[in-house]
Amino acid sequence: MTSTPKPVLDIANLCVSVRGEDGEREVVSDLSLTLARGETLCIAGESGSGKSMTALAIMQLLPQPAARISSGKIHLGDTDLTTLDERRMRRIRGDRIAMIFQEPMTSLNPVLSIGRQLTESIEAHTSLSQGEARQRAIEALKAVRISEAESRLKQFPHELSGGMRQRVMIAMALALEPDVLIADEPTTALDVTVQGEVLELLRDLQRQHGTSVILITHDMGVVAEMADRVIIMRHGRMVEEGRTADIFARPQADYTRELLAAVPRIGSGIGRQKSRDVEAAAPANVAEVKDLHVRFDLHGGFFGRVTRRVHAVEGVTFSIAPNETLALVGESGCGKSTTAKALAGLVPYSGGVV
To answer: Could you tell me where the DSSP H helices lie in the chain?
Structure first.
């Protein structure tokens, strides 16, 4: 008879309390969970359900003194994290357990280069020399598929795109190959194509290193794509837990069914039918865009001459009927917002806008 492997992370009866004007209230109540080696556990639920507070409690990063762990145990291997002081916990963060936050721009230091931030973390947890830490940082950036990794070390966070910044955060989190990675809404601020790339990257890196992952999200599509197991939370409590396939096929809790029902279904035809009805009733368009072009001149040099021209929007044509909702869809930088600004007269353009 084979014994069940000991979980990498074991949380028992965790309660987190927050102090406010009306006294203390529990934002996480009696939460218990385990995480196996190499497993991806998704914690899903609406905003305010206690997902992020659970993650901060695991990392011992609750905002003090307003929030505290009022009871419960958090075991990382044989170590109870709730008993550690900040000095000892700092040695564990990044080394044995790491976290990726939702918005990397608020997590990265804006006045330090990417290389400085990566090497500082590596040097703090290893005995590597400065040169060896720099080489480890380059390897970490290459692992998350950042091109020209060596030159990126000199750049600052504001010089990178949102997707690139999130890749840097993943590189920082995984540079020391932690046992557990917590990703708190890591793709919410990214467009859908970059989101897919980041999720695929997390999967690949997890397979390579055998890392256990806790993925916090409100997006059930991400849950379906990434999770081995799911915990559904609401009002600080676990309302359902199970294998991903079981949760989606046979949800037991009413709230889980509500979450799944809220996922948009492509091809329902509701929007198209509404558009046809409106068009039949009022055929005249309220706005028409014909062959829209928006170009920006970039100036440089001592005399401020035009050095480059950006073609932000090229040859866009569409119309909007009364009471119609028109969606402009595309990845970051494709010209959606610039088109809207042109329609509102906020940027110079050529072509027809009626």
So the answer is: 51-59, 86-92, 104-107, 114-125, 130-143, 149-152, 162-174, 192-209, 220-226, 244-249, 254-261, 270-281, 336-343
